[in-house]
Design a protein that fits this description.
4 domains, four-stranded antiparallel β-sheet, about 800 residues, Alpha-Beta Plaits, 25 helices, alpha+beta, Multidrug efflux transporter AcrB transmembrane fold
Length: about 800
């Protein structure tokens, strides 16, 4: 249906969820005041935002529920679970409060950041609660147990929190598209971490001292008529964890006697796991089905507006065959911003009448059987096959990230000096793209086929009648395109009006009509244009593109979920263009001297993003190392805590391979977050091992004692993060699918990194300890012994290696 398009753009900082309802109210009032006027919403950004908000809040609710269940089963005690669940919303509220000075609002980025941090909101409190529980089992009263327990893990909690914070900080200042993509996601993560640490040292401590009960008083809970049924379920799991701790202790003892076996296992895991990187492919941002798409239709150059309109009508009929499509808005032609500055701007001209832009809205993916990509490709394929005169039809999904409106992800530029030669090379590379697997909707960015009529002025004849070439071209242009009169005010409403003056359409349709146009001489005579000039027909490029001061023609295309990712697809296009492919029947393209092909699109964006994120990751490692040096007062001990990083990478690549996902900037962000989490495991283990050694316990015995004690909080923190991330990794809702690789990376890295680090970190501690002993013996000519001071003794603990009350038979 013909219509006039009106776009409403919100002010910076405004919320579309608030602006759109207000606009709809105004539109409804205008319809009432103007009978016969009807508004149809073609594109509504609040529609997607509403779906995203609903899905994120739904996932937040599930994450909180799963977190509560995980805490309940691991702690095996309802009071500790209640404390953890009280601290979770408190930490979340404090994090939201921290967002206020930064003028941050609830949007897709901040909400997803809050969702990803749910698992971390209770980690610090869980570590505190577990430490207090351990001291309660020693026979201490709740207040003393709280003071001693939290003091025992204070360094570990601070270090583990700072690890993730310093890991994320470089991402905020990396610049480029990377910072734009992740700044609103990373800040909420950092605020959540700081809020969790602050709450763990204040509210958690207060609640532990008030609500936790000594071990002797807990039998009453098991005799409670209601709670006893809860313990029927919890106690078997607690016995399972106890057996796991005992088995872990025996396994650590065996590893200490066979350290080379552990070393070989680590090397094999890293080598085998990292080889999966070569099988997963790379892309800038994961594709996301958010139910919205935009596209561009380009007819053959020279196609009239009427012909374009008929083609658009046929395209709309094809679209209506697909029930998954709810709305379609198509705009024919485009107003040239440069033409509007000329003295002959009409207000009605459309220099690109052979083109049309479209905006498509689909139903939510949970309510349809086909993906947005299947529908888009079906529309494009049928239109190209049935509608004559189409030069290019490309339809692109609109993702949920900052790359949503970017150009085609697969893009190569062919450069050279001659436009005609570029057009021929572009057609050849486009033919290669047509035969390259997993490359969809290939097209060139322009063609050398635009009808071009050039007026060659006879300078001698023009001079005889007193006309200059500039005056002749100006009058011819005015006659064809027209011009506006001065403004005048029309009664009775005094509305401002102008009149468009130009030749009738029948008088400006052919080259002969152009020759018969009249031009006015300085003495007022009117003579036909053909008396002072000739009209020649040529073909010209639809547009002249430059890249790096060189003329170029682009070949673009798209990829799909389940196909080769964009990086691999564009590399295949390059290889097939330069070397050919006999299996696919592709002959190599012969590039003359001075001509070549360069990659643009996702490839260049990703190379820049990878460089920035890699630099940030190296800086993050350096900052984490400095924090560990300060916390543990040494330069060699922190190195052993970084030993788990290769293991996490093996888990990440393995998980991405199993999930058929690609390596992307989102995956790298997952690795950065995961790095801080994995070092938390190392910090918890090494911190307690060193405390035992400070008490005079021999090294191997300290490892055998500390590791089983730290097993439960490590499994709790990792397990809670896993249960929160699994729904996003396996079946993400609309708006969250772009972050699926992040969740997959965290899940895979935690599963592999945490499990293997439980053995790797203690054994690495022995190697570092042996190295320190060797350095002292070789260069200082003395044996190095662990020095014990009163300041190193844990609060409430014996000052020697004698067993504690819970270790005595």
């Amino acid at each position: 249906m013909p219509s006039v398009e009106v776009s409403v753009v919100q002010n910076p900082g405004a919320s579309s969820a608030q602006v759109v309802p207000d606009v709809k109210k105004i539109v409804a009032r205008m319809e009432q005041e103007n009978p016969g006027l009807h508004f149809e919403v073609a594109y509504d950004n609040a529609h997607f935002v509403g779906i995203l908000f609903d899905n994120v809040w739904h996932e937040l609710g599930i994450a909180v529920l799963l977190t509560a269940l995980a805490v309940l089963f691991f702690l095996g005690e309802w009071r500790g679970t209640l404390i953890a669940m009280i601290t979770l919303p408190t930490s979340l509220a404090l994090a939201v409060l921290m967002m206020v000075p930064f003028h941050m609002t609830f949007n897709s980025g901040t909400l997803i950041g809050l969702l990803l941090s749910i698992g971390r909101l209770v980690d610090d409190s869980i570590i505190d609660i577990h430490a207090v529980e351990r001291h309660l089992k020693m026979g201490k009263d709740p207040k003393t147990a709280t003071i001693d327990g939290i003091a025992e893990v204070r360094v570990a909690v601070i270090a583990s929190t700072l690890m993730i914070v310093v890991a994320l900080m470089p991402t905020l200042f990396s610049g480029g598209i990377t910072a734009l993509m992740f700044i609103e996601l990373v800040w909420p993560l950092i605020f959540d971490l700081l809020a969790s640490m602050l709450v763990s040292f204040t509210l958690t401590a207060l609640l532990c001292a008030k609500f936790l009960r000594p071990e002797s008083a807990r039998d009453a809970d098991r005799r409670h008529p209601v709670l006893r049924y809860l313990y029927v379920v919890l106690d078997p799991f607690q016995r399972f964890l106890t057996r796991m701790e005992a088995g872990y202790g025996r396994a650590i003892g065996w590893m200490l006697r066979h350290r080379f076996v552990n070393f070989a296992r680590v090397v094999a895991t890293v080598v085998v796991g990292c080889t999966f990187y070569y099988f997963i492919g790379s892309e800038m941002m994961p594709l996301a089905d958010v139910g919205q798409a935009n596209g561009f239709l380009e007819m053959a150059p020279g196609t009239s507006y009427a012909e374009t309109e008929r083609a658009v009508g046929k395209l709309e009929k094809i679209m209506l065959k697909h029930p998954e499509l709810e709305k379609a808005s198509i705009e024919i032609g485009a107003e040239s911003m440069f033409e509007s500055w000329t003295p002959f701007y009409t207000g009605y001209q459309m220099p690109q009448v052979s083109g049309a832009a479209m905006m498509l809205t689909f139903s939510d993916k949970d309510t349809r059987k086909k993906t947005i990509f299947q529908v888009m490709d079906a529309i494009q394929k049928e239109a190209m096959a049935t509608i004559p005169g189409i030069r290019r039809l490309q339809i692109k999904e609109m993702g949920s990230d900052v790359m949503a409106t970017a150009a085609a992800p697969i893009h190569v530029n062919i450069y050279g000096p001659d436009l005609a030669q570029l057009d021929r090379l572009g057609a050849q590379v486009k033919a290669v793209a047509d035969k390259t697997p997993d490359l969809f909707q290939p097209a060139t960015t322009w063609s050398m086929a635009l009808p071009d009529y050039r007026v060659r002025v006879d300078a001698r004849r023009a001079q005889e009648v007193g006309l200059s070439p500039a005056s002749i071209s100006e009058q011819a242009y005015y006659a064809l395109r027209g011009g506006l009169t001065r403004e005048y005010y029309r009664q009775p409403n005094l509305r401002q009006n102008t009149i468009l003056v130009r030749y009738e359409e029948s008088q400006r349709a052919t080259a002969g009509d152009l020759e018969n146009l009249y031009v006015t001489t300085p003495d007022g005579r009117q003579i036909p244009l053909k008396s002072v000039a000739t009209v020649e027909r040529h073909v010209a490029p639809t547009v002249i593109e430059h890249d790096g001061l060189r003329r170029v023609i682009g070949v673009t295309g798209y990829y799909r979920i389940g196909s080769l990712p964009s990086m691999d697809a564009v590399m295949n296009l390059l290889t097939n263009s330069y070397a050919g492919n006999k299996r696919l029947g592709i002959a190599p393209v012969n590039f003359p001297s001075g001509y070549g092909m360069e990659v643009r699109g996702d490839m260049t964006q990703m190379m820049d993003s990878f460089r920035r994120m890699l630099s940030g990751f190296v800086l993050a490692l350096a900052l984490m190392y400095l924090v560990l040096v300060i916390q543990f007062r040494g330069f060699l001990q922190p190195l052993q805590m970084l030993a788990s990083l290769p293991l996490e990478l093996a888990g990440v690549f393995l998980a991405l391979f199993i999930a058929h996902q690609s390596f992307s900037t989102v995956s790298i962000l997952g690795i950065i977050v995961l790095t801080g989490m994995d070092i938390t495991t190392a910090v918890l283990l090494i911190d307690l091992i060193m405390k035992y050694r400070d008490r005079g316990v021999p090294r191997d015995e300290a490892i055998r004692r500390a590791c089983p004690e730290r097993l439960r909080p490590i499994l709790m923190t990792a397990g809670i993060t896993l249960v929160v991330m699994l729904p996003v990794a396996i079946a993400p809702k609309t708006g969250l699918d772009a972050y699926q690789p992040l969740a997959t990376a965290v899940v895979g890295g935690l599963l592999v990194g945490t499990v293997l680090s439980l053995f790797d970190i203690p054994i690495m501690h022995t190697y570092v300890d042996d190295f320190i002993r060797w350095l002292n013996k070789t260069f200082l000519n003395r044996d190095w012994e662990w020095q014990v001071t009163d300041a190193d003794v844990m609060p409430g603990e014996p000052t020697s290696g004698e067993p504690t009350s819970e270790e005595k038979p």
